[in-house]
Design a protein that fits this description.
Layout lengths: L4 E4 L17 E4 L34 H20 L3 E2 L2 E2 L18 E2 H4 L26 E3 L33 E6 L1 H9 L5 H10 L25 E9 L11 E10 L2 E18 L8 E7 L50 H17 L8 E9 L11 E2 L18 H5 L22
Parallel strand pairs: 6-9
Antiparallel strand pairs: 1-2, 3-4, 5-7, 7-8, 8-10, 9-10, 10-11, 11-12, 12-13
Length: 441
């Protein structure tokens, strides 16, 4: 068995402000012993699924939802660590360790959605091959960031903000647009290629041959008594990046050089910039959660909580909030020339604050200057309903928002509730994945 079995201990976390003394919230066992730079073995491996052994979902105890939530949140953190492990071409380097230095991660070697759903509807390049996406200024092995909002396709340097809240651009305190990207792991990519779902004709043919079949991305399973085959299922990533310049503290970000591509009229405009990661959505399809385990992380300096504003120092520094601007409207799509003024509406749950402190302390144990200590889990949404073709209802928590990815819709943001409406180009359901609607021809 190659997977890690992670089970939560029933414990009482200390409220001590010194996060280095936080009580460990997890115990890890493994079928084989391996030295690890972290307090559990094989930390570079992605867990196949949540371990809900001992939690009876059909005769649930009174604390059922809390128990499952703890498992899901811990899985979110271990997945975050595995995905941000040093990697080459999407594969972890086992003898390296997360945070030893700031280097390219596992997920950054995965296929970009823009490399799969090509503008001409053509067959994408192979998994380990260079992109077929034709951009005049592209450089091999250089990250390309094109999206100016988490939902846009057409990029322009004269984009007018305010064109719909979910797709509105996010502008940092330096006046720069945040850039976004979507990536997928190999099981997702292989499923799309095998079924020719990367263009409109392929999607049409898929349903012509299988009229009663719904598109179903691969689910990752633990090998268990139900006969499931173990393995990693579909994982998709949505990331947000900000340009680092001026007074930005670059030592607090995971950074990479990227080509920022825009269209100015008919001309392609490219700028090479140092960018820092500010947010990460992870959607992990598993047998326990067929609609996905939806984990969302963000940089700790993105925005303050609304409840803390009265005591906020005017000198405090945030990526998307200016404490000195008392009259600036918050969580409103900015007009042209303005900056975003973002606050977190819903405070983090106390148990998540403690879990974050534990994992952040663990990362500092690898390197006291690790950039990964500056990221935090905001929450995990998971389906209580296990019908593989259903909506996932009821899902918990009902609302979940990232200040850099759902900046202006925090009060109504729900991962599965939104993505359940995803459709393919022929109007058929797209298994909670909006990327299929990008297919051309």
């Amino acid at each position: 068995m190659r997977y890690l079995i992670i089970s939560l201990l029933l414990f009482a976390c200390t409220n001590n402000a010194d996060t280095t003394k936080t009580t460990p919230p997890l115990q890890v066992t493994s079928s084989k012993t391996q030295t690890s730079c972290l307090p559990y073995p094989n930390a570079y491996q992605i867990q196949y699924d949540a371990n809900l052994d001992g939690i009876d979902q059909y005769n649930p105890p009174p604390n059922f939802l809390d128990s499952v939530a703890n498992v899901m949140d811990t899985l979110s953190w271990t997945t975050f660590i595995a995905l941000n492990w040093p990697g080459i071409k999407g594969v972890a380097i086992p003898n390296k360790c997360i945070g030893e230095d700031d280097t390219k991660t596992v997920w950054e070697g995965w296929k970009s959605s823009d490399d799969v759903f090509l503008p001409d509807g053509g067959t994408p390049s192979g998994w380990a091959e260079n992109s077929k996406l034709s951009i005049n200024c592209s450089k091999q092995d250089t990250k390309i960031l094109m999206r100016l909002s988490k939902t846009d396709d057409v990029l322009t340097s004269v984009l007018e903000p305010g064109e719909g809240l979910a797709g509105s651009p996010l502008i940092d305190q330096n006046g720069n647009y945040t850039r976004f990207e979507v990536r997928m792991n190999k099981p997702t990519f292989d499923y799309i290629i095998q079924n020719k779902l990367y263009n409109q004709q392929g999607q049409k043919s898929f349903y012509a041959a299988n009229p009663d079949t719904l598109l179903t991305l691969p689910r990752g399973c633990r090998s268990d008594s139900l006969g499931n085959v173990e393995g990693v299922g579909s994982i998709t990533i949505k990331a947000a990046w900000k340009i680092l310049e001026g007074k930005d503290d670059k030592t607090r970000f995971h950074t990479i050089k990227a080509l920022l591509v825009s269209l100015d009229g008919k001309d392609t405009v490219c700028q090479e910039k140092l960018v820092g990661l500010v947010a990460l959505h992870i959607v992990h399809r598993t047998c326990e959660a067929p609609q996905g385990i939806w984990s969302t992380f963000e940089h700790i300096d993105n925005a303050p909580e609304k409840s803390s504003l009265a005591n906020l120092s005017p000198q405090a520094s945030y990526n998307y909030y200016n404490p000195a601007c008392k009259d600036c409207p918050v969580n409103v799509s900015p007009s042209k020339g303005q900056k975003s003024q973002i606050v977190r509406l819903k405070p983090l749950e106390d148990r998540i604050v403690k879990l974050n402190a534990y994992f952040q302390s663990m990362l500092r144990g690898v390197n006291e200057k690790s950039v990964w200590q500056y990221y935090q889990l905001i929450g995990t949404q998971w389906p209580v309903g296990r019908n593989p073709q259903g909506s996932g209802l009821p899902y918990k928590p009902e609302l979940l928002a990232n200040t850099a990815l759902e900046s202006y819709i925090q009060g109504k943001s729900t991962c599965m509730g939104c993505h359940f409406s995803a459709k393919m180009t022929n109007g058929k359901r797209a298994d909670f994945n909006f990327q299929f609607s990008k297919a051309k021809k």
